[in-house]
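During the practical work, I worked with a single protein chain and the tokens that describe its fold, as given directly below.
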Amino acid sequence: MCLHAACSPSRLDASGDLRPFFRAGSFATGRSFSRGRTTPAATFNIWPDLTEYHVEAAIAWAHTNAHRAEDTDWPMIVSLYGKLMAIRQSPVVALNRAIAIGQSEGPLRGLQELHAISNSERLVSYPFYHAALG
């Protein structure tokens, strides 16, 4: 939750300084891995007992770790969504992965992934599906 808050407009205090959401979120996420790692990304290839919450926290960490939108590590986010799909497959997770692929590899590649989502009929009433297609 701290990492999500780090992306919101409330991340700045009245003086325009960053509140400690990112630091707190990174610390809590790192502690959840309990292996002494300081960043979630450092742990993913060595810890087999990841839960969907660990992966979701790492995705949020990857988004908030970028100082600017263009600095976002989209290949890492694609990889994390792949791990999340292995744990909990759903059309919404597949949609988010397709969007990350579009950011990483280009819009045509992202559209290919969008059109390949199984059970995509479940996304018909999901506004973000149509936004991604647009």
